[in-house]
TrEMBL record:
Domain of life: Eukaryota
SUPFAM superfamilies reported for this sequence: C-type lectin-like (SSF56436)
Domain C-type lectin: 43-132, 137-257, 269-348
Protein name, as recorded: Macrophage mannose receptor 1-like isoform X1
Organism from which the protein derives: Huso huso
Amino acid sequence: MSNNEYKEIPVTVSGVAIMEKLVLLMLLLAGMCAVASGHFRKYHFVKDGKSWFDAQSYCREKHTDLATIESQEETEKVLNISAGFNNAWIGLYYDKENWQWSNGDNVSYYNWTSSLSCTNVDSKGEWVDSDCYSNRYSFICYNDTRESYILIDQPKTCYEAQQYCRNNYTDLVSIKNNDEDKKIKEKANGNAVWIGLFNNPWKWSHKGEYSSFHNWDKGQPNSVGNNICVEMYGKTDKERGKWNDAGCHFASPFFCYNESCTDASCTKYHFVKTDMNWSAAQTYCRHNYTDLATVHSQEEAKQLSDILNTSTNAWIGMYCDVSENWQWSNGDEVTYNTRRAKLFCATV
């Protein structure tokens, strides 16, 4: 299939087949992101000062838990219900080392001993653990469609580099074996460069899920050994909404939340107008929301139809793997499927 071809999926709404051309491979199109069911949160600000653990107990007794915040949109929701606080607990806490590749690959190859949060290859070609937020290096992106490595000679923090690679290519480079390690060192050509390995030890209080959304203030977290709980700033406009690691025993106000939606039909969709290929759209949705859109029912198909301009194509999360099995990007079972039994290709 060429880069100018696509597969059509009909979305049925109230018995009418809406031929939305939801493209599944390499075209540059807008995308539909989704926030998974159970992630619609009603936040509550509690002014009474408590330690992090007392605040956690209070939230679990009165609501669902200390606040989980997984997007800038949710950050704004939290800030809009509060006023006049300096700092307040949220549900994030330090658990243990959890090294992972930026693109989600399993960490099967190591070349170092680490203690900090992000990884760069130094001028000698050795892996070095480095501060994600204050150090600035060049970096290496990769493009999975062309199987190529790209050296970007622009000093950035690790997360700035990650965002650049995701916006312009696929992601920061991952290294799975010794041969790939040699190729990366050759591409770096003696420069210190970021690669995609980072430590994400921060978990949310509710369900113990690792945080994929980061909103740390500059230079934070800066004292993990003693500060394993996280507060949100409410002071100046510049800092407002940013995170800081702090000692859990300090008495501070805090944010709780309630889950207000648990049924699969409550999935909330977000139409992203920026054109990307499918892999880049998947990465964007996972970073900012939950994943590319899944469709489990006619009700959800109608939600997509209502959001999407019928003259516009947009990615959804369905894809065909190497075994010719159709799957959803988030791993859900394909239980609702109105695509044609015999697929066909067309030219845009």
